[in-house]
Amino acid sequence: MLSESVRAEIKQWMDLYPPGRQRSAILPALYVIQREFGYCRVDAQNELAAMLDLEPAEVGAVVGFYNMFHEEPKGEYHIEVCTNVPCMLRGANQCMHPSWPADRRRQVCARPHGMFRFVRHGANGGSNRTKEWPDPLL
């Protein structure tokens, strides 16, 4: 499923690492795949696993761990809202849609036309040092 140009670019990334350490190219390779398809398709993950001599579950675990990789198609506009306490204290809740359930840490809300995809997420830290949230009514 991967085109020859995508395979060649992934191979270039693999060549940057010493022999036996090519698996370290997994993150840039996943970026290449996501740029090509818009998300990290399972069949592309499986091909990458074969290229890197990994189990498909290992590649899938990396995709699932990092929130910058998408496991399904996303909308033209991808909007993430931090739900940690510092973000909420700075007004993040004003950006959230009222129909989102409050009991889930990570909630994806896609619109039927596919233009927007809203995601709740917890930031890794430093949110208390962000600039003021803009007034959503402006």
Report on the structure:
- This protein has helices at 4-15, 26-37, 42-52, 56-65, 85-89, and strands at 77-82, 108-110, 116-121.
- It has two domains: 4-65, Orthogonal Bundle (Arc Repressor Mutant, subunit A), CATH 1.10.10; 77-129, no CATH class.
- With 138 residues, the protein is of the alpha+beta class.
Labels describing this entry:
138 residues; alpha+beta; Arc Repressor Mutant, subunit A; 3-stranded mixed β-sheet; elongated; disordered C terminus
Please describe the topology of this protein.
Layout: H1 4-15, H2 26-37, H3 42-52, H4 56-65, E1 77-82, H5 85-89, E2 108-110, E3 116-121
Parallel strand pairs: 1-3
Antiparallel strand pairs: 2-3
Helix pairs in contact: 1-2, 2-3, 3-4
What is shown here, in short?
The protein is α+β, with helices and mostly antiparallel strands. The protein has helices spanning 4-15, 26-37, 42-52, 56-65, 85-89, and strands spanning 77-82, 108-110, 116-121.
Kindly give the count of domains.
2
Provide a count of the helices.
5
CATH topology of the largest domain: Arc Repressor Mutant, subunit A
Question: Architecture of the largest domain in CATH?
Answer: Orthogonal Bundle
Secondary-structure-based class equals: alpha+beta
